[in-house]
Each structure stands twice: as structure tokens, then as C-alpha cells.
Amino acid sequence: MSMPLETATHPERLRRVCIEPLTRVEGHGKVTLLLDDADQVQQARLHIVEFRGFERFIQGRPFWELPVTVQRLCGICPVSHHLAAAKACDRLVGVAELSPTAEKVRRLMHFGQVLQSHALHFFHLSSPDLLFGFDDAPAHRNIVGVIQDEPELARRGVLLRRYGQEVIRVCAGKRIHGTGAIPGGVNKALDNADRELLSADIAQVIDWAEEAVVLMQQLFEAGGDAYRSFGAVPANTLSLVRPDGALELYDGGLRARDPDGEPIFDHASDQDYSTLLNEQVKPWSYMKFPFIAALGAEAGWYRVGPLARVNNCDYIDTPRAEAARRAFGAAGEGRPVQAVLATHWARLIELLHCAESIGRLLDDTDIVGNELLREGESGQLGRQRTGIGVIEAPRGTLFHHYEIDPDGLVTRANLIVSTTNNNQAMNESIRRVARDELDGYALTEGLLNRIEVAIRAYDPCLSCATHALGQMPLAVTLARRDGIVLDVLRRDADGAVRRGDEPISSTTATAPA
Amino acid sequence: MSLLSPEPATARAQVLVIGVGNPDRGDDAIGPLLLDRLRGALSREVSVGQVELLDAYQLQPEHALDLRGRRRSIVVDAAATGPAPFTHVPVVPDTGAAITTHSLSPGALAAVHQRLFGVAPVLTALAVRGEDFGLGVPLSTAGAQHLEAALAWLESQLRMTRAGETLAAAHRPCSARLRTKRLLICDGLTIAAKRDYDTRPR
Fold first, then answer.
1. Coil vs helix vs strand at A478
2. Is the residue at A337 inside a domain?
């Protein structure tokens, strides 16, 4: 796993190409391509202004507030943070095992979250790239374009989103920032009206999910070698798995495999994550680079998320998703699938699994049970000083680690979010795209699109902050090695492309003479 | 009731107000805080059944379903740029809103609604100027003042509902002074407003 483009031999001789920020990627991201005098890519780096202030923000707060507070990290997967924090708090209050009702309500909530998040990503963010092509006009290559050209597909996407949000609402009380999970359990179960509401449509949801998987498989296979090689990098994989090796999104042991699928560790306790993983700091990035400790920083980077999970598991315990997983596995010809665009395929297999799992839980009488909360031996202000909660968020493994004082106030927090886990993997995919697609090219919209498509496959979500009001959504700067800016390319919110402050007639920009 | 039908199963409040923002990020809390204030005001002055309030961290495609069947909808969001204390503009469907993050702009949301249902929603963006969006910081003094001003305007709009005036009428331009204007609000996306409206009530 060499990193030939990460560090150039003579960086002072390189020119810089910056893409800032990326479109349809949460938070602010910037890609820097360092070009040599022959316009060959020598370095490719994804800079992400990761928001680290949240860990300090929650220091000093009572731990029992955490499941609610941490949801404000993210507007896309607040439930994942909610549940990871709740799992950590279970430890703090000494509850090792939830009641069946509490665990199943939490799982139902999580399946609803993953379903709606995956639906948003495929139907509204990535399907425009796949349906219309990477070079389609930005004004069309978006959700509105999908609704125009593929109205039924888009309609299903919106309605699947709504269904997932309703699952969350009945479990957590609100569509966003609910309070369903509390330390030691949940504060409400479903009632029969909730069950009936969700049960009425689940068969249709499952059918739509399965049809989406079929569509994605067809798109991937139609893409041929171009899709198989696009941004593909051999990566280690990390995910939770069930004790029997099944795909697991809520709670399980940690499994890591190498690019050939050979085990690095398996069924490791999530409470030991800090001995299994280390985090590296690089001077050019605000975001840390986690790696598998046993392999070291250079070789130990890994991928998380749908592609890692579906590659990593031995099977999926819902029948239609398992059938889809087998077809997916065949694409790897016995080895883990490494094509970054296959992430979309894996994501929809998971969406189908979530739909099937929701149906299964709705048939389980435990979800309307009465035992909501358990107390640990140590009581509400327990003697446990450390709480670790790990969950598979839509984008990958999410770690919440808290330490508290005797009064129950947080003294230290460490959160490793999915996007951080994927940091190096995203860089590697960018490098692959840069090697294959960008070398020798000047700045054009199409070239930028390809980098974005590779990053978008990981669906990075960077600590939703404010709404980035009024910011330029896309800007490209070309600078000489001495720092003098040679070119600035901007893409406005309405899709118009301008060089500097001057509009240009074509949406395909070329480098200045 | 089916969750998979885009049409609402029952009659809805004729006005929907969506408050967008993160309560923990300074003036980004203006949207949800304004909704909290409205909840109290509605109980005193306007029938709750006439107005529905919806908290949203950010706008998403499914919010198009929430707009369906309304006489008028209003998205309240903090703005980092633009006029203070606030401005309100009718949102036109923005079919060119290609550059989005996981969230939608009001214009893109209107476009989703238009594509789904064949008509554009009557949607207003109420952009309240914020100053400080830092994590964990309180509402700024200016942000608080802007919130109060925006609240007063919004309450006046909702009182018209109570008085039986049509909100569509309230949505009409209030003066003949029309000019093209572009406002930068909400998620960094440009809403192309064809007209600039005098905010004085007629």
C-alpha cells in the first residue's frame, strides 16, 4: 500500500490546484493537486476542515445529556450519534444488557436512520452522476434533474426518505433530535397505532429497495471496466460484525480484514478500540488519520462504510439482502470488491437489509413491550468513569468515548466519526482518479467532477455546522510553486462558471493561455 | 393512511412555518428560536390549527411533502449575508440548484415540489441576518434584535390569517417598486428573487 503521490520529492517545484469546497459534501472540503512544471499530478490531498470543537463543547456537561446534545453534530445522521452516545452512557450507568424492548426500539430507530440516509444519498446525491454521466451539465445533474427525467425513481426516493423519518419519529418522538434513547434503555416503546402505521407500507418499501438494488447493479455492470477501476484502491476494511459473522449495524465485535480479505483481527471488543486503532496527525490536514495499530500508519489505513461492511460480513440475515450480497460478491470474483463506485451498490444492499429488518421488528411484540429501562448496579451516577459506544453509522463505524468525573460531568471526549475513519481511503481514491484521469489536463469542470464523484461515493459528512450562508460553492485556484495564483475557476450556485470575476461562456473551463 | 402517498391524507393547516438551524451554533439558532417564540404567540393570537410549525435542522427533499396542501409556507433561516434585520422573498423554484450539500436550498425545495406535484409552492424565505455562528456561543445582541423584528413581521402575517385575510394577498407585492435583486441566503445558494418587496403592510 504505497503512497507514491502523497509526498513529492521536490514539493517546492510544484504548482497547486485547489478545489474548494466540494459540492454535495457536507462541511467544507478542498482538494489540492500539486502539479509539476509539466502539469503532471505529483500530489493529491483532500483537505477537510474537520470540526474538532465539539469534543471540547461537551466537556463539563452531565453525561446524561449526551444522547441529546451530540445529535447537533449532524443534520444527516443525528440518530447514529444519539445511539452511539446512548450506548456509551449505558456503560456509564452499568447496564450491560438492555431489555429486549429497549434494544429492539433502538435497532428500529437505527434501521430507520440508515434507510433514510442511504435513500438520500442514492436517489438524490449519487444517482444524478450515475444516470446522467459525470460530464452532464450541473444544472441538470442534480435531484431536480432526476425528478424531471426519472420521476418515479425520484418520487420513491422522497417517499423512502419520509418513511425512514417516520420510523425515527415513532421511536424518538421527533423527526429530528428526538429523545428516544436514554442511558439504560429508551423512554418510550411503540404503540399499536405506530406499528400499524409503519406496517401498512413496509412491503412496498422492501420492494422499492430491492428494485433500487437491481437498478444499481445494472448501472454498475453497464459501467464495465471504467466503473470497476474508477477510484479503486486496495483497502483494509473495518466494521462491526455479529458474533456469527453476519452484517451488523447496531452492536457487535470489530472485524478488520486486509485487501485480500484475510483477517487482521476479528470479533474484537469495541471497548478495546483504542488499542486496536491509532490516530495519526499530518501537518497538511486538520483531520486525523486513524490506522490499524498492528499494521502501522503507512499500511494500516482502512475503509469503513457500506463497501467495507458488505465485503466484511459473512452473510446478511435477511433473505433478499443476502441474495443481493451474493450477487455483489460475485463481482469481486472471490476477493473483496474495491471499486469505489461499488459503494453505491453496497449502500443499496444495506438499504434493503434495513427495510427487511424494519419489517421483521414490526412483527415482533417486544417493540410494544413495557420494560423500557434497566438500572445498573452502580445507579444513575455510576462508578464507571469511562463509557465507549460504537455503532455502524450510515457512512461507517462511529466511535464515542467519554470519561466522566464523580459528579457525572464529562471530563474528556473522543469521537471518531465515519468520515475520519475514511480519511486516508478518500485520499487514496482521489489519487487513483488523479493518476487515471487528471494527469496532463488543465482545469476543467469535467475533471473536477470526477474527483467529486470519487469523494461522493464515500458520502462524507463533516460535522454539519452552520449553513455556510452565502459561500461560493466551488472555487478552483491554480498557483505557481512560488505561490502566485495563475488561475481561479469558480462555479456559482446556479451552475454558472466564471474565471476570476468574469463569466465564461462555456461550462467547460480551460486553462488560460 | 399511507406514508408512501405524496398527497396528505388529511386536511392540513393552511400555513406551514419551517424553522431551520442548529440551536447550538450562535445565531444559527434564530430559526428554531423564532419557532419557539411563535408557539407561545400562536396560542394567544392565532388558532394553532391554522398554522403548523416544523423544526428542521436543514431542508431535505421530503420537506416538499410537508409543503403540499398549504396555502402558504415560510422557511425561516439565519443568513450570514444580506440585509438586516431580515428580508423576506418569495422563493422561486431553482431548477439549476446543482450545487448542493446534503441539504437543499429553499429554491431547490420549491423545485422538488414543482416537479413532484406540477405546481410551485407558495413559499417565502424569511432570512434573518445573523452575526456570530460559533459553536456554543449564545445568540448575538444583533441576532436577538433581528429575531425580534422578524418575529413581529411574522406574527403580523399570521394575524392576517386569523382575521380571515388570505395569505396569498399578503404575499403580493406591496408596492410598485419592483426591481431585480439577488439574495444570498440559506446554504450558500443563491435565490434569484425577481422582485424586491416593500415590507410595509398595506
1. strand
2. no
Residue of B nearest to A167 (CA): B3
Note down the domain range covering A29. Answer: 11-49+435-459+474-503
DSSP secondary structure string, A424-439? Answer: HHHHHHHHHHIIIIIT
Which grid cell sits at B10?
388529511
State the pLDDT at residue A117.
92
**Spatial distance between the Cα atoms of A495 and A22, rounded to a whole number of angstroms:** 13
**Do A499 and A489 contact (CB within 8 A), yes or no?**
yes
Contacts of B52 (CB under 8 A, 6+ apart): B12, B13, B15, B16, B17
**pLDDT for the residue numbered A251:** 97
Residues in chain B with CB shorter than 8 Å from the CB of A69 are 24
Residue A88, domain member (yes or no)? no
Q: What is the 3-state secondary structure (H, E, C) of A55-93?
A: HHHHCCCEHHHHHHHHHHHCCCCHHHHHHHHHHHHHHHC
Q: What are B143-198's pLDDT values in tens digits?
A: 999 999 999 999 888 877 655 444 433 343 322 222 222 232 322 222 222 222 22
> By the 8 A CB rule, do A127 and A153 touch?
yes
Statement: residue A505 has pLDDT above 80: no
CB contacts of B32 in chain A (<8 Å) are none
Q: Does B24 touch chain A (CB under 8 A)?
A: yes
Per-residue pLDDT tens digits for B7-63: 887 788 889 999 988 888 889 899 999 999 998 877 665 555 688 999 888 888 889
Whether this prediction's pTM lies above 0.90 is answered by: no
Q: Is A133 on the interface with B (CB under 8 A)?
A: no
pLDDT for residue A24 is more than 80: no
Please indicate, yes or no, if residue A339 is contained in any of the structural domains.
no
Q: What is the pLDDT of residues A175-211, one digit of tens each?
A: 777 789 999 999 999 999 999 999 999 999 999 999 9
Topology of domain B15-193, per CATH?
Rossmann fold (3.40.50)
Determine whether the interchain pair B61/A197 forms a contact, defined as Cβ–Cβ distance below 8 Å.
Answer: no
Question: What phi-psi label fits residue B13: left (phi over 0), alpha (psi between -120 and 50 degrees) or beta?
Answer: beta
How many domains does chain A fold into? 1
Domains of chain B by residue range: 15-193
Which among B3, B101, B136 has the least Cβ separation from residue A25? B101
What mean pLDDT value characterizes chain A?
83
Q: Is the separation of the CB atoms in A458 and A343 below 8 Å? A: yes
Scanning A67-86 for CB atoms below 8 A from B yields: 69, 72, 75-76, 78
Please state, in angstroms and rounded to a whole number, the distance separating the CA atoms of residues B189 and A21. 13
SS3 readout for A370-385: CCCECCCCCCCCCCCC
Residue A120 contacts B, CB cutoff 8 Å: yes
What ipTM, to 2 d.p.? 0.79
Examine residue A37 and state whether it is found in any structural domain, yes or no: yes
Question: Which one, of B29, B27, B34, B28, lies nearest residue B157 by Cα?
Answer: B34
Please check whether residue A470 touches B, CB under 8 A: yes
